[in-house]
């Protein structure tokens, strides 16, 4: 038996707001939010400006 995975869909408006506020691409924020929710370490986490390390 395999472990079930839940689908994760960050709220678009929240991601869009963070992208605007930080001046980073929406896709980067969305990916960081999904990775944070699934417990994976986002590649962007090494950046001090990444959302994953401060959201």
How does the SSE layout of this entry go?
Layout: H1 12-22, H2 26-38
Descriptive account of the structure:
This protein is mainly alpha-helical and about 55 residues long. The chain has one domain. About 45% of the residues lie in helices and about 0% in strands. The chain is built from two helices and no strands. It has helices at about 10-20, 25-40. Helix 1 (about 10-20) crosses helix 2 (about 25-40). It is elongated, with a radius of gyration of 12 Å.
Number of helices: 2
Based on DSSP secondary structure assignment, what is the total number of beta strands? 0
Helicity, as a percent range: 40-55%
Strand content: under 5%
Rough shape? elongated
End-to-end span in angstroms? 34 Å
Q: What is the structural class? A: mainly alpha
Oligomer: single chain
Q: Round the mean pLDDT to the nearest integer and report it.
A: 79
Over all CA atoms, what is the radius of gyration?
A: 12 Å
Could you spell the SSE succession in H and E letters?
Answer: HH
Number of domain modules: 1
- Characterize the largest beta sheet: strand count, sense, and whether it forms a barrel: none
In terms of per-residue confidence, which ranges show pLDDT below 50 for 5 or more consecutive residues? none
């Amino acid at each position: 038996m395999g472990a079930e995975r839940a689908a994760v869909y960050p709220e678009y408006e929240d991601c869009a707001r963070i992208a605007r506020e930080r001046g980073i691409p929406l896709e980067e924020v969305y990916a960081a939010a999904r990775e944070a929710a699934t417990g994976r370490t986002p590649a962007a986490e090494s950046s001090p400006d990444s959302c994953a390390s401060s959201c």
